[in-house]
Design a protein that fits this description.
- The protein is mainly α.
- It has a domain at 1-68.
- 52% of the residues lie in helices and 0% in strands.
- The longest helix is centred in the middle third of the chain and has 18 residues, at 86-103.
- It is found in: Periplasm.
- Keywords: Signal.
- Its main location: periplasm.
Length: 184
C-alpha cells in the first residue's frame, strides 16, 4: 500500500503503468527476485542488504523515506487496560523511549554491536550496514509521539488502497500521554 501510494504521488498509476505481482509469499520475494522474477522488489531488512551482498540487486529507494513518517509500529490497548494499568504502560513506554534515545545518541557501529545478539543469524557487518542505512535515512524519530500528521498519512494510504471504510478522528483513537511523559 505504501509503495502504491508513493507511485501515485509521483504520477505513476500502479494499475496501468506497471505490473505488481502480489502472489509471491512475502518471505519469498527476495528469492524470487534473485531467481529472475521481476525488475524490482520491495524488501525489508535483512533481505535488501542480502540481495546487495550477493550482487543480485541494489537498494535504489526507501519507501519509509519517500512516504514520510508512516507509523509502522504502534501499540494498542483497550481503554479498560489503559485505565487500570497506567503505570505498566508508562514503564513500557519509558523503556521504548530509552531505546530511541540510545539510537539517537550512538553511532551505527555501536547500535549494531548492541543489537547483534538479537540477530544471531546475521553477521555484524550486515547488521552495521542495515543500521547505517536507517541512520542515514533518518529513520528514527527522537520520540514515540504518534503525531497527527502521521496518523493522517496512514489513513490516506489506507483510503487510497481501498482498505479504509471510514476515517477516525485522531483524538478518538490515539493516546499520546505516555509517549509525551516518556519524552520529558
Amino acid at each position: 500500500m505504501v509503495f502504491e501510494y508513493i507511485l501515485k504521488k509521483n504520477n505513476i498509476d500502479p494499475k496501468t503503468d506497471l505490473s505488481i505481482d502480489q502472489s509471491i509469499d512475502f518471505g519469498s520475494t527476495a528469492a524470487a527476485f534473485s531467481g529472475g522474477q521481476g525488475d524490482f522488489t520491495i524488501e525489508f531488512e535483512p533481505h535488501a542488504t542480502a540481495l546487495e551482498a550477493k550482487g543480485d540487486g541494489y537498494v535504489v529507494a526507501s519507501l519509509g523515506k519517500d512516504s514520510g513518517y508512516v507509523p509502522y509500529t504502534a501499540f494498542s490497548a483497550k481503554k479498560s487496560y489503559i485505565d487500570a494499568n497506567p503505570e505498566i504502560l508508562q514503564s513500557f513506554t519509558n523503556a521504548l523511549q530509552k531505546g530511541m534515545d540510545y539510537v539517537n545518541s550512538h553511532t551505527p557501529e555501536e547500535i549494531a554491536k548492541s543489537i547483534a545478539p538479537q540477530f544471531k543469524e546475521t553477521d555484524l557487518d550486515t547488521i552495521t550496514a542495515i543500521v547505517t542505512r536507517y541512520y542515514d535515512q533518518d529513520t528514527w524519530k527522537d520520540n514515540l509521539i504518534f503525531e497527527e500528521d502521521s496518523f493522517t498519512l496512514l489513513q490516506n494510504i489506507l483510503d487510497e488502497a481501498g482498505e479504509l471504510s471510514e476515517r477516525v478522528p485522531y483524538d478518538t483513537l490515539v493516546n499520546t500521554q505516555f509517549a509525551k511523559e516518556a519524552a520529558k
